[in-house]
Write a structure and sequence with these properties.
The complex is a heterodimer.
Chain A lengths: L2 H36 L15 H11 L10 H17 L10 E3 L2 E3 L9 H11 L1 H10 L3 H32 L4 H6 L6 H4 L1 H14 L11 H4 L9 H26 L13 H27 L7 H30 L4
Antiparallel strand pairs in A: 1-2
Helix pairs in contact in A: 1-2, 1-11, 1-12, 2-11, 3-5, 3-11, 4-6, 5-6, 6-9, 6-13, 9-13, 11-12
Chain B lengths: L1 H22 L3 H21 L3 H26 L11 H34 L7 H10 L2 H29 L1
Classes of the chains: A mainly alpha, B mainly alpha.
Chain lengths: ~350, ~170
């Protein structure tokens, strides 16, 4: 085993872990500030200048609250529920290519933890396992609102996974590879979104549903279900659920930027090389992620939520047929270009 | 050598979690242990460099099918008094059925020795998507297409059943 490689990857994993958590923490601050801006309020402004220390204060508050487990809850499942949610939110970032290669200490360092040749399937695999955190937590609480929240969350995640997968297949057809690294390098000229606007639209709507974000936030719909699947949770367990949501928002923004918006590519890239290029590439990806996060939050504070039957209709009767037709057309065009007709 | 140690550890963990599926009293816990078992099987596929099979096992079995299992069990909320099929006759039938399956599996184990040797002769890319796709669309194309027709038939049947039930309610 190459020791240097091991050290390099461990540092990368640690960095990714810290960056994901830090981004998630500051996304809560950003969301509150954005909500305040949209609703013409001030937002959090007490902790530090412009309230910049608010996420830290929130974190300390979460840790210091009483950790309560309901008497009739399934204790072990109640404890591991938030853990699974956080774990699945964090491990997706392992296959994301964050930038071009860095040159440090005479080595080429790939800014991707694992360049597996089934990267996009790995993302979907983790996504389909992500349901368990919510389901187990919701069921173990032994509360009808939690159970309703969990059932809503899992049925919505299963339904929207299909359309999402089919729209991702069109990207795989275009690039001819399942590896996220290959998909990014093939977008050095034209970004995929210009070839596949419909697929991007479907993918984006489905990611909102997968993230349980507005207008699809029925699993934690306060007016019907108290708090949804985390009604019974308190202290840092609740914190982990909320954190997991923001972490997966960060990672899925990265995935969308990679699949459709050229990942770390930016216009005028050929003028740079070496480490400058790598740093600019990371910055470009970060800006794209930031824009996606902004749009997702903007949607939350603008659009009211769907009714549950509307959500199911949209998923099964609109998005899935649309994505299938899109896949068929893409396939036909590619076959035509390869001279099959 | 280290590979062998890893596979021994993985194998015993797989067996332990599979045993817990049968031994745990609570149906929900059984399902969760089954999910864990599927994860260990996924890791075994990765050990054999069958990446595609591993990830499909994770998406389809651990992800989709077990979620549906969990779904149904959570809604049923089974407990000891309501447990169906717990009579002596059912237990005997289950014992005989399980025992005969066990016998078949034991005899099938003999073939795995030969299969293992053919696997070692192949190169490392055997489990990757490209090789698998080539095989599926050339050598096994008839079987592959027939399976897909079978799946579509099952899907249509499921939709038909769901539809008919709805009409009765209305």
């Amino acid at each position: 085993m190459d020791t240097a490689l091991l050290i390099e990857k461990s540092i990368l994993v640690l960095l990714l872990f810290l960056v994901s958590l830090g981004a998630a923490a500051y996304m809560t601050y950003f969301e509150r500030k954005l909500a305040a801006w949209i609703q013409d309020r001030v937002g959090p402004d007490r902790a530090g200048p412009f309230g910049i220390l608010q996420p830290i204060a929130d974190g300390v508050k979460m840790f210091l609250k009483e950790d309560f487990i309901p008497a009739k809850a399934d204790k072990w499942l109640f404890i591991i529920g938030p853990g699974i949610a956080m774990f699945t939110a964090l491990i997706t970032s392992a296959v994301v290519p964050w930038g071009p290669k860095l040159h440090l200490f005479g080595r080429d360092i790939a800014l991707q933890v694992a360049d597996i040749n089934i990267g996009i399937l790995y993302v979907f695999g983790v996504l389909s396992v992500g349901v368990y955190g919510i389901m187990i937590g919701g069921w173990a609480s032994n509360n009808k609102y939690s159970l309703y929240g969990a059932i809503r969350a899992s049925s919505q995640m299963i339904s929207y996974e299909l359309a999402m997968g089919v729209s991702a297949i069109t990207i795989v057809l275009l690039s001819g590879s399942l590896s996220l690294n290959d998909i990014v390098t093939q977008q050095s000229g034209v970004w995929n979104v210009f070839y596949q606007p419909v697929a991007f639209f479907i993918f984006f709507v489905c990611s909102l549903a997968e993230l349980n974000r507005a207008p699809f936030d029925l699993p934690e719909c306060e007016s019907e279900l108290v708090g949804g699947y985390h009604t019974e949770y308190s202290s840092m367990k609740l914190g982990l659920y909320l954190f997991a949501e923001y972490t997966s928002m960060f990672v899925s923004s990265a995935i969308m930027a990679i699949l459709f918006f050229g990942g770390y590519h930016f216009p005028g890239m050929s003028h740079f090389s070496g480490n400058t290029l790598a740093i600019l590439g990371i910055a470009a990806l970060a800006i794209k992620i930031f824009i996606f996060i902004f749009v997702i939050m903007w949607i939350r504070w603008t659009i009211p939520r769907f009714r549950f039957d509307q959500l199911m209709h949209l998923g099964w009767k609109t998005l899935l047929p649309l994505s299938l037709i899109n896949l068929l057309i893409t396939g036909l065009v590619i076959a035509f270009k390869n001279g099959w007709f | 050598m280290s590979l062998q140690i890893i596979s021994i550890i993985l194998g015993s963990l797989t067996l332990a979690s599979a045993l817990m599926v049968v031994l745990s009293k609570h149906p929900i816990r059984s399902v969760i242990y089954l999910v864990v078992t599927f994860f260990f099987i996924t890791s075994m596929y990765i050990m054999m460099n069958a990446q595609f099979l591993a990830i499909v096992n994770m998406i389809v079995y651990a992800g989709a099918i077990m979620v549906l299992f969990l779904f149904v069990l959570m809604l049923l909320n089974l407990n000891k008094e309501m447990e169906p099929m717990n009579t002596k006759g059912a237990q005997l039938a289950a014992f005989i059925a399980g025992g005969s399956l066990f016998l078949v599996l034991i005899t099938a184990l003999k073939d795995t020795l030969i299969l293992g040797q053919t696997y070692r002769q192949q190169d490392n890319s055997i489990g990757l998507v490209k090789e698998l796709g080539n095989l599926l669309f050339t050598k096994y194309v008839v079987a592959f297409e027939l399976t897909s027709i079978l799946f579509i038939a099952a899907m249509v049947g499921a939709i038909l059943l769901a539809k008919r039930e709805k009409q009765i309610i209305e």
